[in-house]
Amino acid sequence: MRPASPKAYVTARLHPLIREIGLVLAFKLIALFFLYTFFFSPSHRIDVTPERVHGAVFGAHADNPADQ
Amino acid sequence: MHEIDIVTLSRLQFALTALYHFLFVPLTLGLSILLAIMETVYVMTGRTIWRDMVKFWGTLFGINFAMGVATGITMEFQFGTNWAYYSHYVGDVFGVPLAIEGLMAFFLEGTFVGLFFFGWDRLSKRAHMVVTWLVAIGSNLSALWILVANAWMQNPVGTIFNPQTMRMEVSSFFDVLFNPVAQAKFVHTVSAGYVTGAMFMLSIGAYYLLRGKHTEIARRSITVAASFGLASALSVVVLGDESGYTAGQDQKMKIAAIESMWETEPAPASFTLIGIPDAKAQTTHYAVQIPWALGLIATRSINLPVEGIKDLVAKAEGRIRHGLIAYRSLAKMQGKPGVTLPPDAQAAVSDLGYALLLKGIRPDIENATDADIHAAAMSTIPNVGVLFWGFRLMVALGFYFIALFAVAFYLSSWRRLDRKWFLRAAMLSLPLPWVAAELGWIVAEYGRQPWIIDGVLPTSLGVSDVPASNVLLSLAGFVLFYSTLAAVDLYLMIKYVRLGPDGQSTPSVLQVPAGAD
């Protein structure tokens, strides 16, 4: 239905650019959601603790004869 | 088949997303300030052509903003997944500026971007102008906090290593915030953004003049772009010189690699203008040098030498040996809370990162041989060829921008903007600020290798032990996602540039008269 006043008619319709940007933002949101869900969600992360970092940095530590 | 390792894949993915994200950032930084300037002129003079200019360039700003927003969030995804050790090791430091950026600057920018577009008919002229300035200030503040975080990776000040928690912790937030590298990077980066914004207006204005369309707005836009662009292009070079000085103090290897300078250059050090770097032969063929220039850039003096790669490698060997003292003591502390390091090990903790370079050579690094230590020290040399050429191309473009904006300023001052050769050159120069900005990041970040945090944590130790196939697949996803966005961005930009200020967007950025569309 046509709005009552010309001004209302003008404001009731979206500029094509707004529609286009809206579509792009929706696409972006969906793409980011899928990327996050399939590759970056907590289940894809390793559990990092001080002990684990210590293991990664100081792991395979072998006593040096010079330290004895 | 040659397999790409997880470190290379993770680096490639991060580099791709960062470089893509930075296609949008400089235009946002530059165009937001230019919009604020043009709207101020409108408020001061009351001439509606300036309002029309703000609305037209604001439409293009809006497209760029909408396309760019959230393209950087994928880097945050990667910090948690691909760079978990890095995030644990330095998250307490690195996360602070990122959080401030998100909470303060981005929300400031995002809120007022909304008011900028939707507030034309709802706010007074002055209030809208204030909104536009707040958009510009918000954008620039966003850049500040990101660059504070990045600068800490280049020059990790204001922090100490806690062996109990295995992480770097902030000891002085003041030092982190006022890191000289951060200050130099911030002003250099935002002024590069201003050049990008000015070139955007100059090139599109030139396109309109060549086609004899929208000439009133095009001439005024070129005049604004020429003066703002000239000042910005000069600033980029001067402030880039300050970045060179800070790198000369804190990242000597980066400077030596940029210069392909294998031997220490005695004072006053010469700057290699051009040459052919040869990393295998450890020399630069056909080098053309400018006397004294490097001494002035890197040391601000003519009586200090600038260290070459070979001497820096020898120093790195010493630091690796020193760092091993701390490593041996820290390795024994595992599971023994309350144990303190002996004094000699405490003094060596600052070189622990150098010892960790040996992890790329052998796992039991405390048994490293002289050959292992030399190999680890050699790994501190970044890719000389990429840095040498990347830096020179960036600098050459910087001087080209000065020349182009100077000509534009001269022609617009004398009302001679009808010179076709100039208009063509200006139009074709449109992509060049992006090329220069991306090269700047490549030089800055490639030059930081092999460190993820300079001198503290080698890149290879920051990477998570996640399956390489995951990173490869997500990398493919990013390529697909970003390629689609780039194509849409180009389509929308070209469409609305062709429509021009007299097109559908003129009455209001957001409203369209009946019958249009």
Distinctive features:
heterodimer; A: mainly alpha; 60% helix; B: 517 residues; 3 domains; 20 helices; 68% helix
Your description of this structure?
The complex is a heterodimer of chains A (68) and B (517). Chain A has three helices and no strands. With 68 residues, chain A is an all-alpha fold. Chain A has one domain. The radius of gyration of chain A is 29 Å and the shape is rod-shaped. Chain A starts with 5 loop residues before the first helix and ends in a 10-residue tail after the last helix. Chain B is built from 20 helices and six strands. In chain B, strand 1 and strand 2 form a beta hairpin. Mean pLDDT of chain B is 89; it is low at 504-517. The N and C termini of chain B lie far apart (54 Å). The longest helix of chain B is centred in the middle third of the chain and has 36 residues, at 215-250. In chain B, helix 16 (384-413) packs antiparallel against helix 18. In chain B, the strands form three sheets. In chain B, strands 1-2 form a two-stranded antiparallel ribbon. In chain B, strands 3-4 form a two-stranded antiparallel sheet. In chain B, strands 5-6 form a two-stranded antiparallel sheet. Chains A and B meet through helix 1, helix 2 and helix 3 of A and helix 3, helix 4, helix 5, helix 12 and helix 20 of B.
